[in-house]
Design goal:
The structure holds 2 protein chains of 2 kinds. Chain A is an alpha/beta fold. Chain A has one domain: Response regulator (Rossmann fold, 3-Layer(aba) Sandwich). Chain A has 6 helices and 5 strands. A 5-stranded parallel beta sheet of chain A has the order 2-1-3-4-5, sandwiched between helices. Chain B is an alpha/beta fold. Chain B has 3 domains: 150 residues, 3-Layer(aba) Sandwich (Rossmann fold); 84 residues, Orthogonal Bundle (Helix Hairpins), CATH 1.10.287; 161 residues, Heat Shock Protein 90. Chain B contains 12 helices and 13 strands. In chain B, the strands form 3 sheets. In chain B, strands 1-3-2-4-5-6 form a 6-stranded mixed beta sheet, sandwiched between helices. In chain B, strands 8-10-11-13-12 form a 5-stranded mixed beta sheet. In chain B, strands 7-9 form a two-stranded antiparallel ribbon. The longest helix of chain B has 67 residues. Classes of the chains: A alpha/beta, B alpha/beta.
């Protein structure tokens, strides 16, 4: 299994830490970069500014509620970009609102996972994301190689 | 041309100086002249009981003598008349736009224009000023035509005695129309305000629920993580405190979830269709299968009707009521009876049980959101079920209440309209 480059977009450092930790602990060979807002996420993906040397991620985990440019805007922008649109994006948000789920898929999200409200379920959700996307699913980048 | 109490005696002169350039509608001399014996100002004895009604008049008339005659007739009847005369459509238009008149008296056949064109101008300008056709001769058919076009009445110049009665009626009708329009406007405004504040409230509950979830999830998740990571480093007391924090956060999460559910009931559109209550009860029981089996509950129903209701929402009502009947059971296994009765234009459905019952003093407040009668250790739950039932039933145009029954237990009743509700009624409840 090769290393999967993951971009984690979440303004909550605790969640970023825990998600990173859980992914690493479950033996998913991934390299995780984290940014805390939408503008940075776009800059990272477009390799602009301080991210000029950043690697193109294989997979993005995106929170919806972000300061400034929120997750919906990031999602819309990435999925409208002919090059970036291939990168699978998992929405990982506290919101269980039907409209958020619908809107995310309309904008082209590849999956929507609600952040569970307690530790055990949270760990199990992140584990499942890792197992599926970095283990089972075939990702576009490796196909290019 | 302007006429007032002072100058009306020379109405002819004003008619001939129609373009004298006096400001339209400017009437500084509005009061009667009060000269003793003045036939225009001094009401006759028989009219002395009537109160003076100020009347701003626009007359479409080319004959000064007729103008004077009409004014005298009205003043004799207690009207304090002032206003203007218009002799062309242009003059009529500019006057009607510049000033607000109480009444228009229009001759229907003037040399330059048909006085009744005034009706068309009023209609075009969207002005509601009563117009009475006062004319020398008018066939019955023509009169009907004018009334159809919007004239309030037709009075023949030979029968001017009828004019005051006709004027009073026109004014009364106008007043009623104004009142009705004002009430309609007020009502429309109130409805709009209500709808807005309702929407704001729903939005508030919704946003608050989502934004409150996030920090709570943090507290719950990371105190749990703390407990797990430091299990061996903390003493018993510390673990207890952590358990309290986690419990508090988890409970708060549940409350917010329930608040969200409650708010969703208010937001969801009702799709009323012909719904068989038997099917609904069966579905509710299917959803409650585990609880029914565990408690050994017996649910009996008979004579359940077909009603107009939203399938999923009505299922929710039955499900909440049956679940409560099971949860608050007495020493014996729950026996739940569901029945229906038609009263006038509505169906009254009853869900009664043999459980612990509800003290009569709580029969009202039990439907308030988060109202509970027991501690969390006695019975779990947040006190959301009945408030949701109430909201659903009220949105269907019905009511829900508790009634006394002979045997121990509780007896919930709710009504649903028997006839399909009009869309407007639904919208009003939405």
């Amino acid at each position: 299994m090769r290393t999967t480059e993951v971009l984690l977009v979440d303004d909550n450092p605790a969640d970023t830490d825990l998600t990173t930790e859980v992914l690493a602990r479950n033996g998913c060979p991934s390299h995780i970069c984290a940014v805390t807002n939408g503008a940075e996420a776009i800059a990272f993906l477009r390799r602009q500014g301080k991210y000029v040397h950043a690697g193109v991620p294989d997979f993005v985990i995106l929170d919806l509620s972000l300061p400034g440019k929120d997750g919906r805007a990031v999602l819309a922008e990435v999925k409208a970009d002919p090059i970036l649109r291939k990168i699978p994006i998992a929405i990982f948000s506290t919101s269980e609102a039907r409209q958020d789920i619908m809107r995310s898929y309309e904008l082209g999200a590849n999956c929507y996972v609600s952040k569970p409200g307690n530790l055990r379920d949270f760990i199990s959700a992140v584990t499942s994301i890792g197992e599926f996307w970095f283990g089972l699913a075939r990702l576009p980048r490796e196909e290019e190689r | 041309m302007v006429f007032t109490a002072e100058n009306v005696s020379s109405a002819r002169a004003f008619v001939s100086s129609a373009n004298s350039g006096r400001a339209t509608g400017e009437c500084s001399q509005v009061a009667p002249c009060h000269r003793s014996g003045c036939p225009r100002c001094e009401p006759e004895a028989k009219d002395s009981g009537k109160t003076n009604t100020r009347l701003r008049l626009l007359m479409v008339e080319d004959n000064p003598a007729d103008v004077e005659l009409m004014l005298i007739t009205l003043r004799k009847d207690g009207f304090e008349v002032f206003g203007d005369v218009a002799q062309s459509p242009e003059e009529f238009s500019s006057r009607i736009q510049a000033a607000s008149y109480d009444l228009i008296l229009a001759d229907y056949n003037l040399p330059q224009w048909k006085g009744t064109e005034a009706l068309e101008i009023l209609c075009r300008e969207n002005l509601d000023v009563p117009l009475i056709v006062v004319t020398g001769y008018l066939g019955e058919e023509k009169a009907v035509d004018y009334i159809k076009q919007g004239a309030t009445d037709c009075v023949l110049k030979d029968h001017l005695a009828r004019l005051p009665v006709s004027v009073r009626r026109a004014l009364e009708e106008k007043q009623l129309r104004d009142q009705r329009r004002r009430s309609e406007e007020e009502l429309a405004q109130k409805v709009a305000e209500l709808a807005r504040s309702n929407a704001e409230l729903e939005q508030f509950a919704y946003v608050a629920s989502h934004d409150l979830q996030e920090p709570l999830r943090m507290i719950a998740t990371y105190t749990q993580l703390l407990a797990e990571r430091y299990r061996d480093k903390l003493d018993e007391q510390a673990n207890k405190y952590i358990a309290y924090s986690v419990d508090g956060a988890v409970r708060m999460q549940a409350l917010i979830q329930d608040l969200l559910k409650f708010s969703r009931v208010g937001k969801a559109a009702i799709e009323p269709r012909t719904t068989d209550c038997r099917m609904i009860v069966e579905q509710a029981l299917k959803n409650l299968q585990a609880a029914v089996e565990e408690s050994g509950a017996v649910v009996k129903w008979h004579g359940l009707p077909t009603v107009m209701a939203d399938l999923s929402q009505l299922t929710q009502v039955f499900q909440n009521l049956i679940a409560n009947a099971i949860k608050f059971h007495g020493s014996e296994a729950p026996v739940i009876q569901i029945a229906a009765e038609k009263k006038d234009n509505e169906w009254v459905l009853t869900v009664s049980d043999n459980g612990i019952g509800i003290p009569a003093e709580n029969w009202q407040d039990i439907f308030v959101i988060f109202r509970r009668l027991h501690t969390r250790t006695e019975y779990e739950g947040n006190g959301i079920g009945l408030s949701i039932c109430k909201k659903i039933i009220e949105r269907h145009g019905g009511k829900i209440w508790i009634e006394a029954q002979a045997q121990p237990g509780s007896c919930f009743k709710f009504s649903l309209p028997a006839e399909p509700m009009a869309q407007t009624t639904l919208a009003a409840h939405a």
